[in-house]
Write a structure and sequence with these properties.
The protein is an alpha/beta fold. Helix content is about 40%, strand content about 30%. The longest helix has 24 residues. About 15% of the residues have low confidence.
Length: about 170
């Protein structure tokens, strides 16, 4: 009975080797193998929202670290840089109202953020991924703009990471 159990254990280990290799082979989300560090440069801001560039930069940094396994680095030492421009920030668009006069009036608002972003390989000088006119919406209750902005930023980060992964 023991030789069979030992044989099954060895077989199970052999079956797991390709899976373990995949875990390491896809580090960085399919990025070129030399890209292990990144820097998110400050975003150009063509809007009147002073907090938006910092919030987007922080969310991109966190997303690239957690979802692609890259390490943050200063621009001069980074293998790749993420740079971009926030081109528009439409705020306070009506999304919905309660029409029943017997209920408390609760308005839902919507905002939309537009950005242009590119990821550049600093080793080769090649643009790895670029997209202009990315737009994302966020909804929020009255006086809850920060919550809506976070939703929109999270959607942008998701689009950048998924879009970049699909290119490699």
């Amino acid at each position: 009975m023991r030789p069979v159990r030992r044989g099954l254990s060895a077989l199970a280990l052999l079956a797991l080797l390709p899976v373990a290799g995949c875990l390491y082979g896809f580090a960085g989300g399919g990025l070129p193998p030399h890209v292990r560090t990144f820097a998110v440069l400050p975003m150009d801001n063509e809007t009147s929202s002073p907090e938006l560039p910092r919030e987007l930069q922080d969310a991109l940094r966190t997303g690239l670290q957690s979802r692609l396994g890259l390490r943050d680095a200063p621009e001069e030492r980074a293998n790749a840089v993420v740079r971009g421009k926030i081109t528009r920030y439409d705020l306070d668009m009506a999304a919905g109202f309660s029409a029943n006069p017997n209920q408390a009036t609760s308005a839902r608002r919507r905002l939309r953020v537009y950005v242009d972003i590119e990821i550049v390989d600093q080793v080769t000088g090649k643009v790895l991924w670029t997209r202009t006119g990315i737009q994302a919406d966020g909804e929020y209750a009255d006086r809850g703009e920060a919550q809506g902005r976070k939703q929109a930023i999270d959607r942008i980060v998701n689009d950048v990471i998924e879009g970049a992964q699909s290119q490699w």
